[in-house]
Amino acid sequence: MYKILHKKVLSDVNKLMVVSAPDVARKAQAGQFVIVRIDEQGERIPLTIADYDREAGTITIIFQEVGKSTMHMGMLNPGDEFATFTGPLGHETEVENYGTVVCVGGGVGIAPIYPIARALKEAGNRVLSIIGARSKELLFWEDRMRAVSDELVVCTDDGSYGRKALVTEPLKEMLEEHRGEITRVWAIGPAIMMKFVALTTEPFEVPTIVSLNTIMIDGTGMCGGCRVKLKEGAKFVCADGPEFDAHQVDWDLLLARQRYYLDEEKRAVEQWEHKCRLEAQG
Amino acid sequence: MTELTNRERMSIPRQAMPAQEAEARRTNFDEVALGFTMELVQQEADRCLQCKRPHCVDGCPVGVLIPQFIAALREGDMEGAVRAMKEKNNLPAICGRVCPQESQCEVKCVLAKKGEPVAIGRLERFVGDYELAQRTCPLERGEPTGKRVAVVGSGPAGLTCAVDVGREGHEVVIFESLHAPGGVLVYGIPEFRLPKGVVQAEIDYAVECLGIEMRLDAVIGSLYTLNELLDQENGAGFDAIFLGTGAGLPSFMRIPGINYNGVVSANEFLTRVNLMKGYLFPEYDTPVKVGDRVAVVGAGNVAMDAARCSLRLQALRQREGAEVHIVYRRSAAEVPARAEEVHHAEEEGIIFDFLTNPIEIYGDENGNVCGMRCIRMELGEPDDSGRRRPIPIEGSEFDMDVDMVVMALGTSPNPLVFKDAGGLERFKWGTVIADEETGRTTKPRVWAGGDVVTGAATVISAMGAGKRAADDINAFLREGIDPWA
Ligand SMILES: Cc1cc2nc3c(=O)[nH]c(=O)nc-3n(C[C@H](O)[C@H](O)[C@H](O)COP(=O)(O)OP(=O)(O)OC[C@H]3O[C@@H](n4cnc5c(N)ncnc54)[C@H](O)[C@@H]3O)c2cc1C
Ligand SMILES: Cc1cc2nc3c(=O)[nH]c(=O)nc-3n(C[C@H](O)[C@H](O)[C@H](O)COP(=O)(O)OP(=O)(O)OC[C@H]3O[C@@H](n4cnc5c(N)ncnc54)[C@H](O)[C@@H]3O)c2cc1C
Ligand code: SF4
Ligand code: SF4
Ligand code: FES
């Protein structure tokens, strides 16, 4: 069992947890992920390692409540335990000094982009960052991102904070302004955001790396449920990724795969909310 | 009681296994075969001729003392039957259920020549179930030796090796990447063939008796690499490693449309159903979809299990008129699945499309499967495997109306564990090179066995390999002679 040591509510739907998992912490690297399961009935859900502390033996995760499992997780508190906390899985981010790079984090994707931006900064890169969310309440870690970026643009879809824009707007401007200088872009966020980031950078021919959040089960390459179609053929996100060249990805198929279990997900949430209501009534 | 003559023994018919009726069982995930009663056991045991040279034993990959355990059963000496069984086989409740007996022990039984062989597997299951309930003869651990052995993977190969090494008094740690032990026994083989409670009970029993440490959620290659496990200074400091990581990597056909929603590997489908208990959704969180018209491609045990799970999910969800097809490119004669499973699948209403091969999968505007193009096949000359090679019949293409395709085409070893494992050589198709007799790999202090060496095979052959490797590991740790030196 893996104990939750600390919990922070970042916004209505975004929660941060620090979990005791010394073995995972010993090996964790930026870009990798863990698979967690709440209890015996729980599903295996992949979450990026947002931070780690080898000395303390802890892993930080940040998640957005989008369905039954993440809603249930959001109700857990320090002292509660996860039944499963497996990792570190997937390949780590390749970090070198590339010169000038851009890091884009959308929504809960700000969490996983942060350690990458930090590692890039430490490797000597000039880091330009963009973070965005639907509205002000959903933003977090602006301070952390600022600390590891040479420039930071903050935007919201509804203009409730920072610039009123989708992340792709400032990205396009940066690419135009620093034409030829920017050598790499990282983007993590909802699939639809990553798709449009890929479309934005493609004409500039800037290599773009995305971390894909497909549906997973085992997370070790055993089921093929996480597979993504690239131009060169299908790959397993858990074992071959999670980071891929954004210009290779068949985004429409990826988006379709994410929607495949929508009906079941809705049913699970309804059932869960019903159960919570009954419990609340005693 | 007077002794029966051989003639009398041979006139007793083979006892049928009580089973759930096909109509009832296709709507539930409960076990199909219900097990013998004591009375049936006695009748069946009476059929055995107690051969001086028992050929049945030659057919068993681990050499179970078949006449001895059957003789004890006949006497009603259950403890004796258990003891005889455990000489060679520590997981009888499992093997009795899933061994392909008809091609192993039973095919060699003398009675098979004249009629029907003794139902060795069914008797074995009875002994296993009895012992799980009674625990009459627990495994005993030898004097602690101070030596430490890491077993990677908790499938039948790993478990068997762990038990035989643990009995010698060595400290054993099993590392398993999933959240439950058992390998294919828990994530692949469905509840209705092998109840998960039986697997868990067999494992708990052995692990508790021998003080084996079971580390779940531990992915080797990531959490520790093989070199780190062996490293005496800075690593985990194990004296020996047994690699029993199986062959879990699914293959997909290289045909257009293979990535549409609704094309799943049998591994994914079965893992959702069995390990994650998807058939109990939403009580359990993991959903599993089933189509109204499912095509399962392949005809091994994996395909039968996927087909029969599909059928049950359709029934549970009251899909009127739903169908499940097995699509196989060879003919009925080449089907590799256990005979009993094929028989059960037919009874339950699975449709077999032999000599048929998919060539394209169609998708709709949402990226969901909406059909499959196939071609008819005919059998040509025998290939390397000795089976007649299927050849497409030109111009015989036709469309099948399906909305889900399960790929059950075979698997290869998952390469994750081979990270930082310098010196461990593999064949180009991925399986580990290991000596058949001893399980020694090309890397010092690393042994391997089971599907990771042979490719997808059987439970009992994996156990046999685990056993042989355990003997060699024990000898190595006892005598300290390094066979790699
Ligand atoms: C390698 C990897 C790393 C991940 N890291 C994180 C992370 O650090 N933090 C985090 O919150 N999530 C992360 N995810 C996504 C996370 O696993 C899912 O959000 C989670 O499984 C949802 O479970 P659920 O039962 O709550 O929702 P479900 O009921 O499974 O999903 C509800 C709905 O939300 C949609 N959805 C799911 N995930 C996302 C998403 N990330 N963005 C937009 N829509 C989504 C689904 O398509 C579905 O429609 C990661 C996924 C992968 C594969
Ligand atoms: C659906 C299905 C039905 C079958 N039916 C039958 C049948 O009826 N009769 C029969 O005899 N055989 C059957 N088989 C075949 C049989 O199950 C296998 O041959 C047998 O399980 C192989 O045993 P194993 O110990 O080598 O590997 P596995 O059972 O595959 O176990 C390997 C274990 O290693 C773990 N592992 C893998 N990589 C790592 C890692 N890096 N770190 C830690 N752990 C790791 C896996 O999670 C798994 O638990 C069936 C197989 C399938 C898939
Ligand atoms: S282990 Fe399998 S092959 Fe051996 S006797 Fe038992 S059922 Fe037969
Ligand atoms: S071959 Fe058949 S009859 Fe002879 S000992 Fe074995 S099970 Fe009994
Ligand atoms: S999650 Fe199963 S192969 Fe990637």
Largest sheet of chain A: 7 strands, mixed
Number of helices, where a helix is a run of at least 4 consecutive DSSP H or I residues of chain A: 9
Major sheet of chain B: order of its strands? 3-2-1-4-16
CATH architecture group name of the largest domain in chain A? 3-Layer(aba) Sandwich
CATH homologous superfamily classification of the largest domain in chain A: Nucleotide-binding domain of ferredoxin-NADP reductase (FNR) module
Largest interchain contact: A-B, 42 and 40 residues
- Count of spatially separate domains of chain B: 3
Kindly state the number of beta strands of chain B.
16
What's the CATH class label of the largest domain in chain A? Answer: Alpha Beta
Kindly give the count of domains of chain A: 2
| Overall average residue pLDDT of chain A | 93
Percentage of residues in strands of chain A: 25-35%
CATH structural class of the largest domain in chain B:
Alpha Beta
Characterize the structure shown.
The complex is a heterodimer of chains A (282) and B (485). Chain A is built from 9 helices and 17 strands. By secondary structure, chain A is α/β, with parallel strands linked by helices. Chain A has 2 domains: 2-89, Translation factors (Elongation Factor Tu (Ef-tu), domain 3, Beta Barrel); 100-258, Rossmann fold. A 7-stranded mixed sheet of chain A has the order 12-11-10-9-13-14-17, sandwiched between helices. In chain A, helix 5 (168-177) runs parallel beside helix 6 (191-201). The two termini of chain A are 28 Å apart. The relative contact order of chain A is 0.13. In chain B, helix 11 (156-167) packs parallel to helix 13 and helix 15 crosses helix 16 (301-316). Chain B has 3 domains: 6-134, Orthogonal Bundle (Fumarate Reductase Iron-sulfur Protein, Chain B, domain 2); 148-248 and 412-479, FAD/NAD(P)-binding domain (3-Layer(bba) Sandwich); 252-407, FAD/NAD(P)-binding domain, CATH 3.50.50. In chain B, strand 1, helix 11 (156-167) and strand 2 (171-175) form a beta-alpha-beta unit. In chain B, the strands form 4 sheets. A 5-stranded parallel sheet of chain B has the order 3-2-1-4-16. A 5-stranded parallel sheet of chain B has the order 6-14-7-8-9. Chain B is α/β, with parallel strands linked by helices and 485 residues long. The longest helix of chain B has 21 residues, at 459-479. At the A-B interface, helix 1, strand 8, helix 8 and helix 9 of A face strand 5 and helix 15 of B. Bound molecules: flavin-adenine dinucleotide (2 copies), iron/sulfur cluster (SF4) (2 copies) and FE2/S2 (inorganic) cluster. The site of one iron/sulfur cluster has 14 residues of chain B, from helix 4, helix 5 and helix 9.
